[in-house]
C-alpha cells in the first residue's frame, strides 16, 4: 500500500478500515500487509497489534477516557486508533518500551490526522498513561456485566446473553478464552500423506508444529506466518480447519462410496474432511449460494487432489429438482452470527446485533429444504459456529417438531468429549479448546 511502511501503520489503517468501512480484520489485514510489502517479522507484529487492539478495544478506550481531557467518542478515528495502539503496547506487550509505544503513536497521529494538535494530544495522553502503568484505573465491579464488558471488551448485550446461559463465573472464562491466542489447527490430507511426514517437513522448514493433543490426523502450528507459502500447503498435504469443524464431520460419519451434499460449503473445509474420510471414493457435491465461491472450492479440491469433490452453486433454501432422497449424508453448516469464532475474528463481537435477529428464520428454511435431499436411512448434519441457543437447539427443536421422520442420533467423538448420547453437542472455547461450535446429527427413518 502506497505510503504505508511500518507494522504499526498497517495495524492503524486496518483498524480504521474495520470501523469506517465495515471491513473484516483478517481479510483487510492480509491485503494491507501484502500491499505494504512487510516481511514476516513485521507482518506478525502488525497482526498482533491489530488483533490485540480489537480484543481489548473497550478496555483501551476505558483507559484513554481516564487520561484524556477530550471524550473518547469525539476523537478522530485514526487518532483514537493511534491511542489504542499506544495503550495496548504499554499495557499488554511488555517487550516494547513505553517510550517507543508513545513515540510511534505520536508519529502515526502526525501522519494520519489533519488536525495539527493531534500529535500533542496523543503525546500528552500516552505519557500520562506511561507514568501510571503500575496503577492503571480500576473498573467498577458493582455491575458485574459492565465490568466483564469493559475488562474483556465484549459488548454489554453479548455479556448479558452469555451470563443468562452460563452464569458470571463461566462467562468470564469464556470471554478470557475469546481473547486468547489460539494455535492454528491444520488437518492432514491422509489421501496423500501422513501426520508424521508432514511434521517432519514442517520441522525441516523451521516451523513449530506438533500433533493435536487428542484429535488424530490433526496438527497445531504456532508462531504465525503466511501458511499458504508452505510447501506442505501448496502440495496439498494439509489444509487449515479448526478442530470444531473437523469434529462435526466426524459426528456425521461419512464413509467410502457415499454420496454427500455439503449445502453451504464455502470455502469447502467440511467437504474436504468428508472426502478424506471417504478415502476419495464416492461423491461429495460441495455447494454455495455465491457463484464466485465455487472457484474457491474447486481450487481447494484441486490442491488437495480430491477427485470426488465436485463444486456447484446452490441456494440451500430453494428446492433443487432431482436432489430429493438422493444423498446418504447432507451437511448444513448454515449462515450464523459467528459468535463462536470471536477468538479468530475478534471484530465480529462489535457488529450490529440487529441483523442477527433474522438468522433463525433463514436457518430453519435451509434445514427444512435440504432435509428433503436425505435418502431414507440417511443422515442430516446441522451445525453452526455460534453459541446462541436461538440459532442452535431452538432451530433443531422446531425442525424435529415439523419433521417426525427425523430423530437425533447418538455419536461418539475422541476423548475428552467421548459419547454424545443425545445427538447434539455444543463445543466451547474455554472448555474444549476449539472454536465455539454446535453439532446436531439427525437420522431420517427408513
From TrEMBL:
PROSITE patterns: SAM_MT_RSMB_NOP (PS51686). Pfam families: Methyltr_RsmB-F (PF01189), NusB (PF01029), RsmF-B_ferredox (PF22458). The keyword RNA-binding applies. The active site is at 385 (nucleophile). It is found in: Cytoplasm. Its EC number is 2.1.1.176. Gene3D superfamilies: NusB-like, Sun protein, domain 3, Vaccinia Virus protein VP39. Residues 174-445 form the SAM-dependent MTase RsmB/NOP-type domain. Keywords: Cytoplasm, Methyltransferase, RNA-binding, rRNA processing, S-adenosyl-L-methionine, Transferase. S-adenosyl-L-methionine binds at residues 264-270, 288, 315, 333. GO terms for molecular function: methyltransferase activity. It catalyses: cytidine(967) in 16S rRNA + S-adenosyl-L-methionine = 5-methylcytidine(967) in 16S rRNA + S-adenosyl-L-homocysteine + H(+). GO terms for biological process: methylation. Belongs to the class I-like SAM-binding methyltransferase superfamily. RsmB/NOP family. Specifically methylates the cytosine at position 967 (m5C967) of 16S rRNA. This is 16S rRNA (cytosine(967)-C(5))-methyltransferase.
Amino acid at each position: 500500500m502506497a505510503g504505508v511502511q511500518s507494522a504499526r501503520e498497517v495495524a492503524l489503517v486496518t483498524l480504521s478500515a474495520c470501523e469506517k468501512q465495515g471491513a473484516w480484520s483478517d481479510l483487510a489485514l492480509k491485503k494491507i500487509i501484502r500491499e505494504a510489502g512487510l516481511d514476516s517479522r513485521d507482518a506478525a507484529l502488525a497482526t498482533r497489534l491489530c488483533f490485540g487492539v480489537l480484543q481489548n478495544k473497550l478496555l483501551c478506550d476505558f483507559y484513554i477516557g481516564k487520561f484524556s481531557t477530550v471524550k473518547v467518542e469525539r476523537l478522530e478515528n485514526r487518532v483514537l486508533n493511534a491511542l489504542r495502539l499506544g495503550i495496548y503496547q504499554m499495557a499488554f506487550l511488555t517487550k516494547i518500551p513505553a517510550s517507543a509505544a508513545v513515540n510511534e503513536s505520536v508519529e502515526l497521529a502526525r501522519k494520519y490526522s489533519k488536525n495539527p494538535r493531534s500529535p500533542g494530544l496523543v503525546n500528552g495522553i500516552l505519557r500520562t498513561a506511561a507514568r501510571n502503568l503500575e496503577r492503571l484505573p480500576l473498573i467498577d465491579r458493582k455491575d458485574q456485566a459492565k465490568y466483564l464488558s469493559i475488562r474483556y471488551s465484549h459488548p454489554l448485550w453479548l455479556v448479558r446473553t452469555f451470563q443468562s446461559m452460563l452464569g458470571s463465573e463461566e462467562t468470564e472464562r469464556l470471554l478470557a478464552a475469546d481473547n486468547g491466542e489460539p494455535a492454528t489447527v491444520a488437518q492432514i490430507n491422509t489421501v496423500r500423506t501422513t501426520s508424521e511426514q508432514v511434521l517432519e517437513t514442517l520441522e525441516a522448514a523451521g516451523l513449530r508444529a506438533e500433533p493435536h493433543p487428542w484429535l488424530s490426523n490433526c496438527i497445531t502450528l504456532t508462531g504465525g506466518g503466511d501458511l499458504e507459502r508452505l510447501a506442505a500447503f501448496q502440495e496439498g498435504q494439509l489444509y487449515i480447519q479448526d478442530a470444531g469443524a473437523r469434529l462435526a464431520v466426524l459426528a456425521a460419519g461419512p464413509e467410502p462410496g457415499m454420496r454427500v451434499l455439503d449445502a453451504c460449503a464455502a470455502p469447502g473445509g467440511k467437504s474436504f474432511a468428508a472426502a478424506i474420510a471417504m478415502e476419495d471414493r464416492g461423491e461429495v457435491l460441495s455447494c454455495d449460494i455465491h457463484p464466485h465461491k465455487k472457484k474457491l472450492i474447486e481450487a481447494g479440491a484441486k490442491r488437495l487432489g480430491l477427485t470426488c469433490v465436485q463444486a456447484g452453486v446452490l441456494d440451500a433454501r430453494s428446492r433443487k429438482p432431482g436432489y430429493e432422497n438422493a444423498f446418504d449424508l447432507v451437511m448444513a453448516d448454515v449462515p450464523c452470527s459467528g459468535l463462536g469464532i470471536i477468538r479468530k475474528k475478534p471484530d465480529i463481537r462489535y457488529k450490529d446485533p440487529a441483523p442477527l435477529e433474522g438468522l433463525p428464520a433463514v436457518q430453519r428454511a435451509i434445514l427444512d429444504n435440504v432435509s428433503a435431499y436425505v435418502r431414507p436411512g440417511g443422515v442430516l448434519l446441522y451445525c453452526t459456529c455460534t453459541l446462541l441457543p436461538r440459532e442452535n437447539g431452538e432451530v433443531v427443536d422446531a425442525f424435529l417438531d415439523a419433521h417426525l421422520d427425523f430423530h437425533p442420533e447418538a455419536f461418539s467423538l475422541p476423548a475428552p468429549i467421548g459419547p454424545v448420547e443425545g445427538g447434539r453437542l455444543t463445543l466451547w472455547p474455554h472448555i474444549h479448546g476449539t472454536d465455539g461450535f454446535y453439532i446436531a446429527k439427525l437420522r431420517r427413518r427408513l
